[in-house]
Amino acid sequence: MIEIIPAIDIIDAKCVRLSKGDYDQKKVYSESPVDTAKAFEDAGCRRLHLVDLDGAKSSHIVNYRTLEAIASATNLTIDFGGGIKSDDDARIAFDCGASMITGGSIAVNNPKVFQSWIIKYGADKIILGADAKNKMIATNGWLNNSDLHIVPFINSYLEKGITQVISTDISRDGMLQGTAIDLYKEILAECEGVYIIASGGVASIDDIRQLEEINVPAVIAGKAIYEGRISLKDLEYENLKRKC
């Protein structure tokens, strides 16, 4: 059964959401990311997707104190991303309570460093961020586009031991208009052995069901939860079903 992973995106230590990755289209949903994380845990969630948007824009980790506070206040398995560009950034993230870190821009711009993390921390601790627009990988908080197609990009890192991949269709992120089903079908068909975590566009439980039908193992949901389209009760119900 598909796992629903709630997301918390951080700007200025606040819980926010963007639309299509546009920093000018920011909406603050909570002044307390810790309380938000606790609510997700109370609803039966075991994992949290935490993104440092300030870090992604600044190219170095910024909101590590928020990560530390959430890790100290909950038992959630936290995958953390945004601005992790150096060995020091990776060390800070793990020291502050991240169970896993996600590298996207670093995997494009400095693959030697990213590959060294796979060796140092283990492939189960490192997630590949494969965020794309029109199937082309984007970097630096989605501010820059590359000439890398998503499928060979993912496959190049599967060969190096990566198993988990978070892929966001940027054009759908925060738009509540449905997920990129065709993109995930292509990834599952062309990237053997990948544990793909879908992200972007989730508007309802029905969208999650569609991903489940094509065997996507996990999905990140953010704005749909904050806008009440997926309630904490819905999360609790889905998490109870996973335990059965």
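That was protein one. Protein two is written in the same sequence-then-structure order:
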Amino acid sequence: MLQIDRKRVEKVFSDYVENYNSRDDKVRLKIEHTFRVAALCERIAKSIDCSAGETDLAWLTGILHDVGRFEQLRNFGTFHDAQSIDHAAYGADILFKEGKIGDYIGDNIGDMGNRRETEIYPYASICPHVKYTDENIRELIENVVRYHSAYRLPDEFDDTTRKFCNILRDADKVDILKVNVDFPLEEIYNVTTDELRNSEVSEAVMESLKEEHATLRSLKRTAVDNVAGHISLVFELVYPESLRMVEEQGYLEKLLSFESRNEKTREQFGEIRRMMEGYFGKINRKISVL
């Protein structure tokens, strides 16, 4: 079974982020986000009866998923991919093109499991028993990191890769809700308070919410579109445990309670709240009959 040395992984990551100013709130934000996402990945994996090896692998992808963020901030001064680089692809390049993945897992998978060929037992009947070589495992990790923030996953991904992608993508979305509550929105979105509190949600963004899917970055035109866009991430959550975590943590409720100075925007957020209540009601009915 796949075995990962978590202490080694945590030390390598901690050593890596020592190269950045942890007193900078934005750096600290991403360090804390990383460890929370890894823990959420573990929780989601366990909720779908993943093996111990799969759960460790899901946790590892959580630790690795945002390694590109730190160089992004250093070089561009922002976390906005549209204004800089694709942080997910850049992180995958750091790990796999620059060879940093070896620092975390050794030169081969045998370092983690004491054998060249590692067995992973995928969840339930989603896919059959699979044997992974070192190359397979590395390719899977790279794809999960590279596509964790993509709007949609490539059609050619197999079920196992898609499962690990969805675990990480769910965990990341759940924690992004927390970040948007605990960290000043003006700093996250690089906007002024006046822009944020006085702007309206664009019509295109409202329409995307009505269609119950995540809002494309290209549709966002106003400062408050970012708040609505992050709320829309809930529509993309795959696993029931992820939705339970959203309700449990309460950060969605706080985002829905966004305080605007604009009367129309307040009406829009009332409408968005009704959309989310209807969506959760529909999903909970589906879960209850499973």
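Residues 110-129 have pLDDT under 50 and may be disordered. Keep this in mind for the problem set.
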